[in-house]
Every structure is written in structure tokens, then in C-alpha cells.
Amino acid sequence: MHAHAISFIQDLAVLMLTAGMVTILCHRFRQPVVLGYILAGFLIGPHMPLFELASLSKGGLINDEESIKTLAELGVIFLMFCLGLEFSLRKLFSVGATAFFAAFMEILLMVWLGWEVGQFFGWTRMDSIFLGAILAMSSTTIIVKALSDLKMKHERFAQQIFGVLIVEDILGIGIIALLSGIAVSGNVEPGEVFSTVGKLSLFMIVALVIGILLVPRLLSYVAKFESSEMLLITVLGLCFGFCLLVVKLQYSMVLGAFLIGAIMAESRQLMQIEKLIEPVRDMFSAIFFVAIGLMIDPATLLSQPWPIFVITLVVIFGKVISCSLGAFLAGNDGRTSLRVGMGLSQIGEFSFIIAALGMTLGVTSDFLYPIVVAVSAITTLTTPYQIRAADPISRTLTSWMPAPIARVFGLYGEWLRNISPQGDGVLIMAMIRKIILQIGVNFALVVAIFLASAWFAAPIAAYLNHWISQDNLQKGIIWSGALLVSLPFLIAAYRKLKALSMMLAEMGVKAEKAGRHTLRVRRVIAELIPLLSLGTMFFLLMGLSASILPTMELLVIIALCAALVAVLLRRWFIRVHTKIQVALLDTLEQGKEGH
Amino acid sequence: MHAHAISFIQDLAVLMLTAGMVTILCHRFRQPVVLGYILAGFLIGPHMPLFELASLSKGGLINDEESIKTLAELGVIFLMFCLGLEFSLRKLFSVGATAFFAAFMEILLMVWLGWEVGQFFGWTRMDSIFLGAILAMSSTTIIVKALSDLKMKHERFAQQIFGVLIVEDILGIGIIALLSGIAVSGNVEPGEVFSTVGKLSLFMIVALVIGILLVPRLLSYVAKFESSEMLLITVLGLCFGFCLLVVKLQYSMVLGAFLIGAIMAESRQLMQIEKLIEPVRDMFSAIFFVAIGLMIDPATLLSQPWPIFVITLVVIFGKVISCSLGAFLAGNDGRTSLRVGMGLSQIGEFSFIIAALGMTLGVTSDFLYPIVVAVSAITTLTTPYQIRAADPISRTLTSWMPAPIARVFGLYGEWLRNISPQGDGVLIMAMIRKIILQIGVNFALVVAIFLASAWFAAPIAAYLNHWISQDNLQKGIIWSGALLVSLPFLIAAYRKLKALSMMLAEMGVKAEKAGRHTLRVRRVIAELIPLLSLGTMFFLLMGLSASILPTMELLVIIALCAALVAVLLRRWFIRVHTKIQVALLDTLEQGKEGH
């Protein structure tokens, strides 16, 4: 064993032993393990005041912080991968309005508050933006720990909190992708944000569709060998490989880990994979949290008492207000809303990941990270008390509230119950939502096909050069190829659109208003909407594929040919699309069985 | 994520993806996973001929081989740790004579053959010694795989093979410690080998006794929290920490990993620990085996066809002959013996670890490693055929064998059955073995106490300087302190020795021979043996603790005081010792229940 390996093992030994001892102590005093790790990191870190006082081993007990940090990044990947495994598309579709409302309200308000606080303290634009993002996310680990300790995990408000956390996960992933873009370009243009979000959504939809078609099949194949070793190696290979792909596409590795986790969550082997990957995650995430502790410099903390105090207050009050309001607006009673808000008001591991992102990108200041850790530590300690305080506070509020305001609140709830669909309406709304989702996925795939053809246009053109030298013809071939591949999805989208517009026409054009024109108006609407949508789609595609767009005459010829092909091979295309759809839904169904 | 982390993730992605794909292929063609890993390493390694031909990415697909190698060393630690977990003292005590005979025969013959082969090819002394050690060990992984494939895992010869493998493990650990010593000092003195083996056995006994007293208790305490994360972190901390301690004592890390694994094997949480550590081991051991593949240079292999051919033949025939002979001498019939020998004739992961040791110590030549890998690959492929061929060969041998030789073999078996103890004899032999073991452990602990006092003499003397300045008195105090701590063990050893010598006297001095002196002779023997042994022990201790030995007069005073204390506090010392012994046996019993 050479010297480097020994010093590496020594670092790991010190790290794990300290982490083990401190977490046992933390557990005795009923604090979350994460706090223990961070404390352990601080104890063995270079800023430990005891070492400096004794002028013993100035650099702390860790010889090679660089290696530990590299392993810590693996920890982030495994943390996000496991978050993805626990996330699931089904869960996202089934969370109610509360989750969406509360998560949106929380993220919008907290990003804004974070930005304002940063500006108030005179921090840089980047520090302020990152602070906003850091404050936006709550901590699943800490909430689960607090709710289990209080034995409230199965109450209704707890279920609503878990719904909010799921929505937060996917929005947080979006925020991370956005922040990476902003950090590289250096400024925040609304147009750019819009295009980043668009591209990101597109990438996520395409990755999920292709991933769910391929990955669970591959995993099922490997699982047949009944070797947990091979399954683990395959899972790790796919995880790292996908992360790498995502990095090559200029997105964050964290996004890749989460997405591949979400894809694997749809496989039958989910339970087995979770069991295999958990020890690996625990090992590396311990390193990640200890590495956070290594960075805490008490001098920085002592020099920043006000930001820590103010941000802690902002986190607690901002989150309680925004989440409670969101929950209330979605139709919960005051008590439940307040409990949801109280439960969600802390920051945790997601915030560390965002802070670490800012640090590795080199765009945030050094003091941000320790402040975030301090605020997280404080809000972790307060979370259980907040949850317990929710009921007394809601009782006090109710008794103090002036009668008119209470009446307004009561009326709001009644109104909400009136406008929400009932009986058949619920079914129809669910159907419409499903159709819109299908149309969206089909359009996203078409857009992805055209973007991919534009991306690969140069090598394809070089290849075509052997036979066809004319630039316009080459473009025409590539474009019509992309169109041909897209046809199944376009036809499917058209059919769904038609079904949707018929439903809308039926519901929107009531016989008592349109009188004898009812049927005709309905038919016009039912025909018009799909055609208009397809037309818009074509213009969008022409914009996106500008680099491979042939001349207008050729385009018209291609479009006519495509229309002819579409009409002639209509049945075949539908069959192809149905097969793909069935395969996708099968996997999703199988995943459900696996749970 | 900074550039270094991305290149690291890329390496891991390439490694895991290739390993996953190749092992799936290997599994399809019913070859062990280990071969797949090595092949994967070769495919992505810097010596892959395809890359060199295409002059594409000259260094292979791995950017940072150094980091991969560091992780590979973690892989060795986890491999040996899991080997330790599967090893168990109980298993070692319960393996029969076959295992000991076959393992000793195999190791002696193969080390000698390896040395001779190395010398024959004109290799250096170190290369030859390492080759001997490499050839001595068989591969558990490959045998288990072959036997499961052949569905022979539960046959009698398979059980005997597993026994041999357990003995091999502990002897292999000894060989590794010896090799490290030889590599550092550079030569092989019989005296030094003896002292190394002595010190090693002492260290192992002390580590096992103290470890089994402390570690399972600690693990039970941590397991009470019912957090598999905390248990994992504690296990990892203990594993790395113990490895580090062992390295500081100038032993190999591999030894430490194995020992702490063997200690944890006695805890109630064994099953849980195995489940937690397995994915971690699988991940890192995959990296270890792939790293082996990275080092294979086909040019080296092609330039060494003769050594590979000769060593392969030596492995197959040498192991078949030595193991079969050992099994036969221990009393098995010819067919079983041949099957044992055929099953054990290959080399595998232990050989890689020894080869890696030679490489990291920088004492073996570069060509040794690839040759070992090639021989391992070939013998892996032949193992299943060998096992299958055992029966036909034994039939052929029986029919060809001249009658006189067959009769001699038959007589040997009969003689062996005659001399082996029967009825009460079996019980008495087991009892004697147990008492000898207990005496050995107690003496080892006493020796360890004196060695430790000699080790810590300087700081203790410095501390004593405040009160006592005379050198001789200081030494006297330290020496008598060591003696006081040793007293419980010395008294226990004395009592066991007395019991043993009474039994021996009873059995050795038959009434029909000694006549009317019988009782007196027996009593003399029963008193003499313990006193002589204790006397020898004292002289040994005086030699070992030469550096802290006071003058003779003082020593006599101390000895007299000690004798007085021993007689006066006899009961108390026995109680202390019994408590320790009960605690130790309790843990061993609890471990058994846990299985």
C-alpha cells in the first residue's frame, strides 16, 4: 500500500469514526443525523478553534481535503439519485392542488425574499440570487425525522407536506438548471429564463420518455441473472453514464442523477435497487455532510451574526406564511394550512446542494455557505417546536380574528367548493388533464426530433455529400426525414387534439345559447382547434429547425408528400404510436405493481 | 461541479458501464464475474491494442488512473473485510483434519514449487518468493461459482473444500504479513521468519480477544438505534480505524481488514452488517478487478508464453497432487481426495492481492502481475472441467493401480481409523485441545501485556520522574505493574496447566506399569508440568521485557510480593478472570445465535 493510499484511508478512518461517534451522541439527544455529520466535519476540520489554540496540526485532522471533496460530490450524486428513486411520476400526477399551490407560493415568495435580503445586506447579484434559491427549498430529511418523532407521519397535513416536497423536488431541479445557466451567462434575461425553462422541460420529457422505454427493460433483463452485484454495477453504470451525458449537454450533474433515479423508479426492481444503493448513498452522503462541516469557519460565522439572524427569521416566517397561504388558497381549513406551513419552514440538504453548486461554479462568496449551514442548523432545531406550536397558534388566531375577516375566509372555502367540479365533472376534468398531458408529450417528442436533426445535420450532410451535392436538397432530405419520424407523434397529437376540442365544444357551446346552430358551431370548433394547433406547431418547428430548413418550394412539396403519406399510412402510423404508448404505460403499470 | 470531479465521474461511468456490459456477457457464457471485470479493465485500459492501432486516445478511456487505483485499494480492504466477516473462529475450530492437512500440504508444496519455477526462469529472489505465495492460495469466488454451477455445493467433498479455504484464509493472512516483513528487510532469515510469525500470532490473538470483548458490544449498542445508516458508518469507521492501527504497527492493511471482519463476525448484527457492506464491497471490488485489467499489457503477455504455460501446469498439477494427498492422509477415500484436489487447483483474488502487494511495495517485477492474471484466467476456465473429470480419473486410477499399492492405501486408511480416538477418547481429545487453546490465549495475553509495558516504558518513566528519580525503581514499578495486570491470566494459565497435566498423568501413567508408585508418579507429574511451564514463561517474559527489567534483587522481591499477592487475592483474581472469560464466551455464543 503506498503512502497516498494510507493517508487516504487515514482520512476516511478519522471521518467515519468521528461521524459515527457524533451521530450517536446526536441520536441520544434526538437530533437529526445530518447535524451530527456537519458537527463532526467541523470538529475534524481546519477551522476547529481547539487546534488553532493548541497550534496542533494546523490543517485539521484531514490530510487531503481535495480527495474528500471529490467523494463528497459522489455523495451529492447519490443523494439526488435516491431522491429521484423516491420521486415518481405517478406520485407527481396524484398530488393535489394543495401541493402545487403551496410549493409555487413558497418558491416564488422565498426566492424574492432571499433576493431582497441579499440586496439589503449589500451582497452581489449572484449571492442574492443563490440565497433566494437556497431559501426556496425545504428539507425532506428533517421533516420526516420531526414528523416521525412526533408520531404525526400519517396525519392529513403530513401527507400534504409530502405532496409539497414532491413538487418542490421537480421545481428545485429546474432551479438548479436555471442557476447553472445564469451563473455561466452572468445575467438574468426574462427571455433567456423562458428559453432555459423550455429547453429544460423538453429535455426532461424526452429523457423520461426514452428512459422509461429503455431503462426498466434493461434492468429487468439484468435482474434475471439474480446477481445483486451485477444489478448494482449496472445501476451505477447507468447513473454515472447518464450524469455524464447530462453534463455534456451543459446541464448540472445533479439534474442527471435525479432524472435517472426518477426513470429507475418506474422499474419493477425499484425495491431491490433502493436496498442496494442505500448503503452506498449513506457512505458517500456522510462524506458530503462532513465535507460541509469542514468548511465551517467560526470566524466567518461570528462576523455575520445579523445575516444569520435575519435569514433565519425570513426562513421561518416567510415559509410559514407562503406555505400556509398556498395550502389555504387550495381549499384547506386554517388549522391544516398552518400546520403545513409550520412543518415546511426550514432549509436542509437541497439548500446545501445549491450552495455547493454556487461555490464550485465560483460565483458565490465564501461567507454564503457557512451562513446557510448555520441557518439550517437553527431551523432544524426549531422545526419540531413549530409543528407542535401550530395548533395553539391557530386557536389563538381564530379567537383573535375579527368576525368579518373570518366570514370572508369561510365564504372563500364555500366558493371554492362550489366552483370545483363535482360528479361527472371530476371525471371529465381528469380526462382533459390526461389528454393535454399526452398532447404535450407528443409535441415535445416532435420538437426533440427536429432539434436532434438540426444538431446532427452537419455529419449527415457530410455523409449525403457522396450522392447529393446540392445544399438545398440535402436539407430537404434531412428535414423530411425528421418529419417522417415525427409523423406518428404528430398524428397522435392531432387525434388527441380533436378529441379534446370535441369535448370542449360539447361543454362550451350550450344548446340553450347557440340554439339551432349548436351542432354546426361545435363541429367548427372541433375541426378548427386541431388544425390551428398543428399549424402553430409547424411554424414553431420551422423556427427551431431554421438551420436545416430547405427553400419554400421544396418545403411545400415535402409538406404535401407528408400529408399524402400521413393519409395513406395513417393506420400503420397509429399502430406504431400505440405500440410505443403501450410499452410506456406497461412499464408505468409494472412499476406500480412493484411497489 | 469542477472539472476534476467531472473527469472522475467520467472515469467511473466508463468503468461501471463497461464492467456491467462485459459481466452480462460473461454471465451469459457462464463465466465468473471476476473475469468479466478484468476483461472490462483491459478493454478500457491504456494497453488496448485497438486504441493503439487507431492511435485514438492513447492512454485508454480512463483519465485519472491514480484515483481509480486509490479506490481499488479500498476495494481490497472491503474484499478482505468481507472475507473476515465470512470467516469465523467457530468455523476454524470446527474444520476437520482434512482441512488442516490439505491446506498445509498445498501451501508448503506450492510456495516451494513457485520459488523453484521463479528460479528456473532466472527471476529475482523476491519475484520467486512472491510467485510461491501467489500460487499457494486458491480462489473462494471461483470455487463457489463452479460448485454452484455444477450443483455440487452440498456434497461432502465440497464441505471439505470450504474447510480448506478457511484454513487457507488464515494462513494467507500470515503469508501476507510475512511477505511485507521480507520485502522491507529484503532477506529471509529463518530466525526472522520465526519471530515474525510469533509476533503476528501474538498480535492476532490479542486483537481478537480485545476486539471480541469490545466491538460486538459497541455494535449492539449502535444497533439499538435501529438506524442502518449509523450502523454502517460505525462499521466503516471501525474498519478503517483498525486498518490504520494495523498499518501503524507495520502490518499490512489487508491483515487489519480481515481481522476486524473476523471480530465483527462474532457480533449479533453479522447478518445486518453483511447486507449493508455487500453493495459497498461490490462497488469497490469491481473497481479493484477492473484496475487489474487496466494493467494487462498484451505485449508483456505475448513475450512470456513459457512462464504462463509452465505456471499454469504447476498450479493445476501441484495443487491437485498436494491437496489430494493432504485430504487422503487425513483419512478420506481416494475419490473424495481427488475431488478436493481438483476443486482447489486454481488461483484467484487472494493471489491478485498478494501480487498487488508486491507491486505497491515495489519489490516485484512488472511482468509478474499480468502473468498471474493470465494464469488465473486459464485456471478459472479449467476448474469446472477439472471437478467434472475427478470421478473418471479416480476410476481410471483405481483400475490401473497395481494391487500391492492399492493394498497399502487400504491398510493406511484402516490404521488411521485404529489410531484415531474413539468413544471417550474423542471427548478427552476435544477437552485437551480446548485446555491447550485456553492456556495459549492466556500466555499470549501475558506476553502482550509485558510487550506493551516495554513499549510504553519511556512515557511512563517520564511521568514517574516527578516522584521517583532512580532508574532501577522506575523499572521495578513498571515491571511489577505489568506483572500485577498479568496475574489473573497467569493464575488462570496455572490452573488450566494443572488440570491438563493431571489428565495427561492419568492417561500416560498406567497403573499396570507404574505399579504401586502410580499415584505418586501421577502427582509429581501433575505438579511439575505447571511449575516448569510457568518457569519457562517467566524466563521468556524476562527476555521480552529486557528493556524494563530491574536488577535481580529487586526482581526477586517483586516476584515474592507477586507470589504473596497471588496467594492472598487468589479468589479475587480468579473471579476477575472468570468475568472476562464469560464475557468473551457470551459474545461467541451470541454470535452463534445470530446466525
Automatic annotation (TrEMBL), chains A, B:
The chain crosses the membrane at residues 6-26, 33-51, 71-89, 96-115, 127-148, 160-182, 202-223, 230-247, 283-302, 308-330, 439-464, 476-494, 524-548, 554-573. Pfam families: Na_H_Exchanger. Its main location: membrane. The keyword Amino-acid biosynthesis does not apply. One of its GO terms (biological process) is proton transmembrane transport. It is a multi-pass membrane protein. GO terms for cellular component: membrane. Keywords: Antiport, Ion transport, Membrane, Transmembrane, Transmembrane helix, Transport. Residues 18-384 form the Cation/H+ exchanger transmembrane domain. InterPro entries: Cation/H_exchanger_TM (IPR006153), Na+/solute_symporter_sf (IPR038770). One of its GO terms (molecular function) is antiporter activity. It is found in: Membrane. Belongs to the monovalent cation:proton antiporter 2 (CPA2) transporter (TC 2.A.37) family. This is Potassium transporter. It comes from Ventosimonas gracilis.
